[in-house]
Amino acid sequence: MSVTTISGVIPQLAQVADLGPPRSEIGIGCLMPWAGKLYVLNYSSHRRGTGTGTGLRVIERDFTMRKHPQAVDGTYANRMVHHPSNQIVIGPHMIDAAHNVRTVASLVDIRLCGTSPHLTDPANLVYVLGMEGELFELNVRTLECRQIGDLQKELDTESEGLVHFKDCFTHSGRLMVCSNEYMDADFRGVRSQGRLAEWKGTGAWTVLERKPFVGFGGILSFGQTTFALGWDQASAILSVHTGENDKWTRYRLPKASHCFDHKWQTEWPRIRSVEHERLLVDCHGMFYEMSPHAYDGRVWGVRPIATHLWVIPDFCSWQGMLVLGSDNASADAGGNLVTAEPQSGLWFGKTDDLWNFGKPKGWGGPWWEEAVKADVPSDPYLMTGFEHKCLHVQHQYGNPVRFDIELDFAGHGHFHRYTTIDVGAKGYAVHVFPPGLSAHWIRLVPQANCVATAQLIYT
Q: Is the pTM of this model over 0.70?
């Protein structure tokens, strides 16, 4: 067949939901290449009661597309290859190498957001996570499914309608989960319902962060390193667990847009392997390239590629191309009065095309009205890959405060003092870095206890 492309988009492959009522969105929650075909699983906003016409679709090598007979309406954004059984889990479906599809009926009405290997029986079982915190064990051979946890209770989150779990990941002998709760009250600091948490298969869960987190990534056999994406008022966050020292380290990244702050606007930013043994990261409106390895317990290679405004719930490699799935237009249950038809497109190109997107730029920093202690360094904040840079520092202490600016120019976690910045009592100061000066990471060290804000603007 002839294929029409417009700036990488193939119009005949658009995902379009029913006009309704009820009207819904049709975001592309899962893209999974499998045995020569590309499986596309899209989602409505909140289970089957919020719209119809979504579900599993199959794209062939000749770019013809059909809706699969097993397609069901729902909210799905989970995909995983189960190598021991040579199947994929995508939404509530199991698909084998001959493209036989089985559907787990008990999971159809769960808003599925994550699937990961089981800690003790990975040959037969997987964990499946629902957005309301339901945690299941699924037998991929028999399709027996049982709920083993309610993470709203385990992690002390608020009730359905407010809680918003987003992903799970199994690595280094633990199951990790995250939720991205973040609304006005979280921004104002009177609520902290986002979670990054882990569980070792028995006993209690450990809450690692009470901040919004959206997704995990990593290549299991490479470096025993797990990456988790999140954010807070100050910046985007990259938390890294390194298996060699069993330690979590928090790094900070710029925000390329504030349009990704609210929990409903994030829509599953991802960490995916799209080229051989490399990771592509989509975080808060910016693409990055990243190595799956950590060296000496530290992350070295994080490089910004491009900024964008797209909502990209998933992306993958297929037939030598980079494929981006989107969530383009949503009627928002009737709240959006100028969007008539729920639809989302697929973009096809090559990974290097991303460098032709928007130039890397953004803002953020290590502190946002944070109580800091003398001589205690801030989190490392990304500095490399941006052209012009300036630092804004403000504090609320009644005396002047000096802040050391330290740079890690090699990227291995060893910081050196670059200069100092003196800020008057309850004052504000700005430091403009010379054009061309850069380092992998920057951090600040206060010389007095105070409540401080430090933000960097990159243009």
A: yes
